[in-house]
Amino acid sequence: MSTATSVNILVRPIAPGDNQVIADVIRQVSAEFGLTADKGYTVSDPNLDNLYQLYSRPRSAYWIIEYEGRVAGGGGIAPLEGAAPETCELQKMYFLPSLRGRGVAYELAQRGLAFARGQGFTHCYLETTAALTRAIALYERLGFEHIDGPLGSTGHVDCEVRMLKRL
């Protein structure tokens, strides 16, 4: 089901044809902030080009954000690998500059957290990097708290900011 969040913005579940375009968005935003594959960031994730398949798994979801008819961002929820079954992870939240400052990230995160609660998760984890100051501020507003060590097996070795929220 698709919903309009504001003029010219559409939020919808990922579809098979979105794989390449959302991977390109993630790579573009990552490069903008210097988050390159050689440093262990999301762009080094072997699943990046297969997000539809990844988020078609049980207790997982990914939403695409279209702006003026073009894919401009997205984000998802999935079980946190290597962690307790009641812990999920907020994953791959990336937005082109055209979406930033419009409240889209907040709305998408809220949608993801509601989905997580509906799937029986009791905690939501995320990893990011200190370079993404606006993202960290958003996560703090959403009630995520900073934690010392990593949880699970995310494979993001250079994401030094780790946060957890009780759902």
UniProtKB/TrEMBL annotation:
Keywords: Transferase
Family annotation (SUPFAM superfamilies): Acyl-CoA N-acyltransferases (Nat)
Signal sequence coordinates: none
Keyword Transferase: yes
Transmembrane segments: none
MF annotations from Gene Ontology: N-acetyltransferase activity
N-acetyltransferase domain segment(s): 9-167
UniProt xrefs under Pfam families: Acetyltransf_1
Protein name, as recorded: Putative acetyltransferase
Organism: Sodalis ligni
